Amino acid sequence: MINDLTRGAPVKLMLLFSVPLLIGNIFQQFYNIADIIIVGRTLGMKALASVGAVSPLFFLIMFIIVGLTSGFSVITGQRFGAKDFNGVRRSVTMSTILSFLFTALFTIFCAVFMNQLLFLMNVPKEIYSDAFWYIEIVVLGLFVANFYNLLANIIRALGDSLTPLYCLIIASVLNIVLALLFILKFDWGVPGSAVALVLSQAVSGLLCIWYVKIHFPILHLKRNDWIFDWKNDYKFAFEHLKVGIPMAVQFAILGLSILIIQSVCNTFGSDVIAAFTAALRIEQIATLPMISFGVALASYVAQNFGACHFSRIRYGVKKASLINVGLSVFMAFVMHFWGGYFVRIFVGSGNEHVVKIAHDYLFISSLFYFFLAQIFIYRNALQGLGRAMIPMLAAVGELLMRSFAAVFLAVRISYFGVFYAGPIAWVAASLVLAIGYYTTIKRFIYKTQQKLRMHKADTV
User: How many independent structural domains does the chain possess?
Assistant: First the structure.
């Protein structure tokens, strides 16, 4: 259901919007987490390590798709906030054309240079074959991933976080069923889990299309909406690219930093790879409440930016920041005391060395969740304002800090050095984003006040 986020109590609106996002994000994690659990429990630690070894590349690829489509949908949300419904439809068609063009180019690049990418990641020979086919199948299914993410982000830009949730619940259950079928019944091994992932994403995209056709008249596109006139529309395309490309680059940089850490981690053997894989999945779940609130804030800010409600934006960001602080403290407490239990869900109780390594990572990283929580707030606020360059610059700094720390510390304190790389980068990035946001919002408020003064002067 379409929801106008420019009216009503900001905290209540964001909470109502974020709860379906949280549930949806949990189910989306099932796409990959189900694979990890099924692979680890049925095919063993080497199979788990083969998926884990290429997981950062998987996230890098998905981050680029999500970043690009999220950036395009910011323009859609701003048009909706301004009540420009024709602009909403034009934004949808422009986003579709641009995102599928980029996906085609990216798919070809990844498919052609996959062997070289895995070589640079130091993937061990004993798990190379399974790792290669898992990620290759995922790459060949990128159009499916783009299809769903674009639709989901457009729907969320209109204030509806429930529809993507319904689609994800169905697709996540299907993913588990298909993964079990392909691995246990058809004996497809690790590649079977990748096939299940792609097919499940296809179903979620089709469900979104079906729901939009029935319940979203505003998104019923006409033939004229697809006509692209270079003379008149290139500025509109550039408006989308100005937000979408920096966000894609930002997400790619974050994914690349994880890729570099995984490459360093791969040099310590299968146990460390398996432990790091399980720990990262658990951390992704632990941080989902903070991520979901940040995504809700982005839609809230985008709509209110379109309506020029800058004081309302500042109030909403302040409250969202306080809520994320509370969430970060709670999740850190959970990871400290129950992190080992969650690890055993992934690897079983007979791999205590792997459990200990994974729990050590969770113990260290959770101490810095406060800074990570603020990254989600200020990054999404800036993106909702259409200011994607500052988050991109922060991501560059995060990449440099994370990579340097991983390589430098790993030489001195073994794989424990890798565990400190993320937290060090979080501290630096959160400071850059906070300064960038407060500087930007003050500028917008000042310009608004100046326009009001000029308007009053003209009417006197």
Answer: 1
